[in-house]
Amino acid sequence: MTNNLLKITFNVFEYSVEQLGEIIYQIFETFQVCETLKINKEKGKKFIQEIRKQYLTTIPYHNFYHAFEVFHSLSTFLYTSDQLKNNYTSEEKVALLIAALCHDLKHPGGSNQKEIEKGSDLALIYNDQSVIENYSISQTFLLMKSNEEANIFSEIEKEKQKKIRKWMIQLILATDPEFHREQLQKIRKNKSLSFEHESHRLQVGILILMSSDLGYFTRTMEIQAKWMKNVCEELGFEYSENNKSFVKNKILPMYQLLVKTVPETKPCFKLFQQNFKFKL
Ligand SMILES: [Zn+2]
To answer: Where in the numbering of this chain does the PDEase domain appear (predicted)?
Structure first.
């Protein structure tokens, strides 16, 4: 089952949000999320359901479909690469998967810049610092605190709980586009990147999540076009068929770095290469 699900040809738009919730649970099973967290099926499913309900349905891009797509891309990278599968601990895999799923929770639409310019409540609460990313992390943990039935971290040891939380915070904060270049440079500079060190594994995790957050460029042209249309609608950009320079300057270096760091992820970029004719 998972073999069919964890493919880059998967078309998110063919499913309802309820069906996508069920698929998330099946992917949880593949990575033994409930076993790692020592929780029963019901709690795992309840968590997914509550997360799904927290994503706004009124915004065209940062909704549950986007959350699913990012979760799915990250899961596919993790599933495809033995290097990733064998070197991350069970708790680290959980942190990566849950961070992907919750990274834009309750996203209000638009961007941090817009929130700051408006002087919105969120911008004031988070002092203009990664406003929406901070908000999504905070809402994820508040949801679990206020709803015991959906608190998937309630059964594991305190130390493991702390570590998952620490990883999730760093992973989600790194999805702020303002720091993309900085994050990539940090990884590039590290010539002796090794999976033996926790901080290095986290760096690679950040790269996987960033690549997944912009993973729609690895999909078919038809799916990409839909995402582009939704992004432009939400952010108020002009939709242009000619987005090659954005792909060349922003997306390509990130994917190249991921393939260089984890060569086994290369098959996930087959469609990207076919569509854009860039070398990875
Ligand atoms: Zn996102």
So the answer is: 1-280
> For ligand 1, a single-atom ion, which residues have Cβ within 5 Å?
104, 213
Specify the range with the lowest mean pLDDT, choosing from 41-45, 145-149, 174-178, 273-277.
273-277
CA distance 144 to 99: 14
Residue 86 sits in which domain range?
Answer: 2-174+181-217
Residue 4: what pLDDT?
80
Question: Closest Cα partner for 23 from 104, 124, 115, 101?
Answer: 101
CA of 69 to the centre of ligand 1 (A): 9
In the predicted model, is pLDDT for residue 243 greater than 80? no
CB atoms within 10 A of CB 194: 10
pTM equals 0.96
Distance 10 CA to ligand 1 centre (A): 18
- For residue 149, the tally of other CB atoms under 10 A from its CB is 13
Q: Could you tell me the CATH number of the domain that includes residue 19? A: 1.10.1300.10
Active site residue 62: yes
pLDDT digits (tens, 9 = 90+) for 199-219: 999 999 999 999 999 999 999
Distances (CA, A) of 231 to 30, 69, 224, 278: 31, 14, 10, 23
